[in-house]
Amino acid sequence: MSQPLAQPLAEPSPASKRRARGVLGLTLAVGVGLPGALFGLIVALSPLRTIVPAGWSDGEVFLLHAVGLVVLAVVLVTFGAVISGMSVWWEMRVSSRMQSRVGYNRVGAGGFLQWIADAVKLLLKEDLVPAEADGVLFRAAPYFVIVGFALTFVVLPFGQSLIAADLDVGLFYVLSVTALVVVGILLAGWSSNSKWSLFGGMRSAAQVISYEIPAGLAAMVPVLMAGSLSMQTIIQRQGAWPWQWNALTNPFALVAFFVFFIAQLAEGNRTPFDLPEAESELVAGYLSEYSSFRFAIYFLVEWGNLWVMSAVAVTLFLGGWQVPGVGLDVYEAARGAAGSIPGLGWWGLQVLSMLVFVAKTLFLVNVIIWIRWTLPRIRVDQMMSLCWKYLVPFAFVCFVGTLFWQLLVTARPWAALATGVALTGAGLVATFFFLRLTLRNVSAVGDRVDLTNW
Amino acid sequence: MERLILRRLQADGEEMILNFGPQHPSTHGVINFMVETDGEVIRKAIPDVGYLHRSIEKIGEQVGYPGFMPFTDRVDYVAAMFPNEGYAIAVERLLKLEVPPRAQWLRAISCELCRIASHLISVGTMAMDIGAFTPMLHGVRERETLNDLMEALCGARLTYNYHRVGGVAFDLPEGWRDRTLRFLDHFDRFLVEFDRLISFNEVFVKRLAGVAVIPAELATDYGLSGPNLRGSGVDWDLRRDLPYAAYPNFRFQIPVGKGFVGTVGDAFDRYYVRCLEMGESSKIVRQALETLPEGEFMAKVPRRIKPEAGEALSRVESARGEMAYYVVSDGTEKAARVRVRTGSFTAMGIVDAISPGLMVADLVALIASLDVVAPEIDR
Amino acid sequence: MTVQEVHERLLARFGDEVGPLGEPKVDPFCVVRAARIVDVCRFAKEDPALAMDFLEDLTALDWPKRNVIEVVYHLFSYRHRHAIVLKVEADRAAPRVPTVEGVWRAATWFEREVYDLFGVEFAGHSDLRRILLPDDWIGHPLRKDYQEAGGYRGFDNVRENPLVELRRLDERARAAAAPATVPAPAATPPAPVPPATGEKA
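^ inputs. structure came back:
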């Protein structure tokens, strides 16, 4: 639209080219190496809790498992922090493209190292505790929040055997542990001793507590279908192909998936439910008085929650780590004897299942980011009425409907496959029409889709 | 000040008194609201203005008639062509000066492009205040092209100082006409996309429909003007009803609020009227560029502007309402009084009356839908 | 209706309380007695033939030589599309004018501004306090004889001519750069004359 430059930009010098390549190399090293290392550690360490090497005494085995668990815990928390930072980067790049901006492009190739720079900056800032604030509570509040966030990683099933602890009450554990975040938010809002923080804290507490109900009810639907609260069992009872996922094999589960997804958006304080941090109204709500590391913790948790929300939704409704074409018996066959270290085939299967899980979770993370930058935020009373007047009744109906559905499937097993295929087909058709409409809209403005513009 | 306000608010310890501003994360400027709330519902919201008072009217009495033109830009820097034009028309009336037709057309073109730019900011920041950040940036992207066009025309991106007493300062540069027409082609399609993105988005509509309804009689009584008045259903536009400059030569519609998705006079009406006005301005610019007469772009103005003693009122349809310049001359080279009556000043006056019963989030919607800017209020 | 017809209608109703319509020095106006301004305005608004439902502007003019402050009312009618300008002359020493807030609520803020910048008291106004300036400001700036009080709450409103200051800083920098062998430059800064082009700190 604007005139071309009078003279073209000068060709970069060899020194700056080398520097650009160095920056790109560093970015790739960090971008691929860091998550790769963490994922690798997760793959390597997770099965350790079950391996009983031959010839070791009970005490030594216990010590091995304990050390393995501790290391795994550290790796998982680090993973949470790193994925949170990388989600920030991804969100900022995606949002900048949606908004016709360039986005992060200074620190690292494509601005990839910006989140590290931001984290370091936040750590180096002055740590302010307002004089009027309740010191103990003010300092304690971030810890509640991060504990509530970090503890969920214990039961996230990264792969077929890649879970820190496959608790029998895994789902129940997740729902109860995420409630700690509410405590943190309320404490933050109250102890800041500022009207704006109090406003934000009250709003947020009301929101998170209210939306726990439909989230919990909707989460009961896969539990009913799988017959267990354990995360791995829920995944194992689903199939790998889309028509075997919980969400697509049971129409009530599809509705429950949407209810669950919306409720999780609200619990994570994401637009359209980000009233507690509504920038143009309350500046930063319950976070207004926080600075430096405490602030960094809140931000870390908010973005890390993207991953947790998506992971739980993928586990419950979208088939988890199930690899299409690989049945459960294949894993058993590759495992070998219970005491020995498994062979390479088994490790390969684990990595494959982890990749499937990560791909599905990243897809949902993208959807959450997409929603954030498209929709405006809804008002407090509208949010409450949405929860209590719409989501909760829908969740109840889905719950009761699933009960009848289970009866139907027991009587006529082909019903599950039929519905699955029908819903998958409908989904594919809808996707096709959606993409076509998008292309039409884009060309109506005179634009075109340009994937090289990255 | 606090004590006065508190006495007015009659706080009895139950309600909370908040200070909304004067630093807003939105671009409405430095305005403060003292809000007395009962939980989320507002009892009273009293605007507290004056943070941007720069005594422009006093300066008008000291710098002489031609020297005041750059100061008029600062009266409303988001849509700076309108204060320029208003002041020029007032002084021309005092001098009984005829402005050549080419200058009238150029004034209309620059003003309508400025109206588009101003409305882009207005609807964009309104969407941003409601929580959707993307439409604002799309609007700003379009405004960048407009800024480039303005820069080619008069050298400045924001405070143009383009109109002069007697005409305009510069003629169209080469190729400007084609650039503008190309931009307008793109812009008309952009408006469709903008509508699709945000205007009828379910959440957006729910936030604005039926919110902060201003009935037509109240709007007239409080002196609202421009899109605020039209959003309340009053079919009045200076360009059509009291035409000035080149406007009698163009055909365009005047969008009036009619309860597009809610009640007449709600926040959505005021918002959507601005969206539609952008399309109409685009039409006006096209017609003006097609029918642009040849000739001079500046009348013969005496070197020293020394009008006879008298007073003149000029009214222009600015992006934010009706801007009226009341210039009083006492026969010397310096004006006796330059008074600027702006649309945002009266719009702020109505906040006190409409706010009781709104929720805090609706107050943000109200202020955004009134499209107030601090420089217009405080001058 | 033209301005003359509007004026005649007001004259018919209020007699000599409404002054004659001045010569059209571009815009003509008529002076109304202060005591009756509220009635005149209300009649102008409510009379169906006049229907001046829009208070375009309410402002003031300061004429120290005539010792009056004129409060100016620009009225307009949407229905009939006619306008008139009314003026009320108030004594400059203690200007008091009744408020027309009851006729058009737009007057509330306009009158506050006139009070703030001119010092005109509007009798009966619901909330007469300063609007643009801080509450503890002294003086009414748009009066012709307004003298600044020399700062506000410790903020100075006078500062050294920046050119003088910059020249002094220049000299200081030059003295610091050149060692002691060079005689120190003159201590007094030169007169504040705009420098030739190119000389800038």
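Strands of chain B lie at 16-20, 32-38, 41-48, 163-164, 167-168, 310-318, 321-329, 337-341. DSSP finds 16 helices and eight strands in chain B.
thumbs up if we can close this ticket
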